[in-house]
Amino acid sequence: PKGNVVLAGSEDFTAWMWNAGDGTLMQVFSGHSNSVLCGGFSPDGKTVATGSFDGSLRLWQPRSGECSTLFMGHPYHDGPVTCLDFHPSTPGLIMTGSEDNTARLVSGVNGKVLGTLASHTETVECVGMSGDFPFAASGSLDNKLVVWDLNTLQPRCTLQHPKAVSQMRWIPSTACVYSSCIDGAVRLWDTRAASCQSVMWGHSKGVLDFAISPDMKTVVSASDDHTARVFRMVP
Q1: How would DSSP label each residue in 131-197?
Q2: What is the mean pLDDT of residues 27-53?
Q3: From CA 170, how far away is CA 129, in angstroms rounded?
Q4: What's the maximum distance between 2 C-alpha atoms anywhere in the chain?
Q5: CA 143 to chain centre
Q6: CA 82 – CA 159 distance, rounded (Å)
Q7: Looking at the whole model, is its pTM more than 0.85?
Q8: What is the number of other CB atoms lying within 10 angstroms of the CB of residue 187?
Q9: Taking the CB of residue 152, how many other CB atoms lie within 10 A of it?
Q10: Is the separation of the CB atoms in 111 and 83 below 8 Å?
Q11: In angstroms, rounded to a whole number, what is the distance separating the alpha carbons of residues 14 and 29?
Q12: Could you give the CA distance from residue 78 to residue 96 in angstroms, rounded to a whole number?
């Protein structure tokens, strides 16, 4: 978050951290027993998290490469960890998704599993927490983006998609989210009204991932149709 640093997970059970400016290898995180499927930095840049096909979430110290916290086994996920997200402002709060069809909330501060978010019927592909409201969201292969109340750990609403949800991101200072779908579209949702505000088409195959501009109005999407597209999202 505070530098040009790239983190990448590998099928060789490790994660690698590079300086993007000069390509220098900064650290290798080793400890998982299967492929690393997801990862990220804490907002303060002092913690690296990785999720693996081995069903574990590991928290690492970037400078030393040491694993400081391990979540694995009951009451954590029963399947591969597919995605994760750090809360923007609550230290150590992490949300993860899994092939066990659930999302979990954990604390990197005390090492405890805080709760289970269960509503999906297929693999959870993406998760995200709002920094402005006690809301979270999870997208799944079951074609649903479920918005959760973090106070009750119950669904607030379900945003139905035509096909699998591949990615989602909250828009800061709002209760709105962007989502991408295997139907080839990027959508803008108002989670309070549980309504779709805008749909942007252009891809001929599924959208796999997307990034948002700093003003939150432009989306760059990457698709299985081998193209990237730039959308100006206007509700």
Answers
A1: SSSSEEEEEETTSEEEEEETTTTEEEEEEE-SS-EEEEEEPTTSSEEEEEETTS-EEEEETTTTEEE
A2: 97
A3: 7
A4: 47
A5: 16
A6: 20
A7: yes
A8: 22
A9: 10
A10: no
A11: 6
A12: 12
Render pLDDT for 47-92 as a digit per residue (tens, 0 to 9): 999 999 999 999 999 999 999 999 999 999 999 999 999 999 999 9
Tokens linked to 66: 């040491």
Q: Please check whether residue 184 is in contact with residue 206, taking contact to mean a CB–CB distance below 8 angstroms.
A: yes
What confidence tens digit (pLDDT) does each residue in 95-152 have? 999 999 999 999 999 999 999 999 999 999 999 999 999 999 999 999 999 999 999 9
Does the structure show a pLDDT above 60 at 20?
yes
Characterize the bridge pairing of strands 102-107 and 93-98: antiparallel
Task: Using the predicted structure, report yes or no on whether residue 1 has a pLDDT greater than 90.
Answer: no
How far apart CA 141 and CA 124 sit, in angstroms, is 7
Q: In this structure, which long-range contacts are made by residues 40-45, counting pairs with CB atoms below 8 Å and at least 24 apart in sequence?
A: 40/7, 40/84, 40/85, 40/86, 41/1, 41/5, 41/7, 41/86, 42/1, 42/86, 42/91, 42/92, 42/108, 43/1, 43/86, 43/88, 43/89, 44/1, 44/91, 45/1, 45/2, 45/3
Q: Tokens representing 109?
A: 């501060």
165 vs 121: CA distance, rounded Å: 13
**Ordered DSSP codes for 54-74:** TS-EEEE-TTT--EEEEE-ST
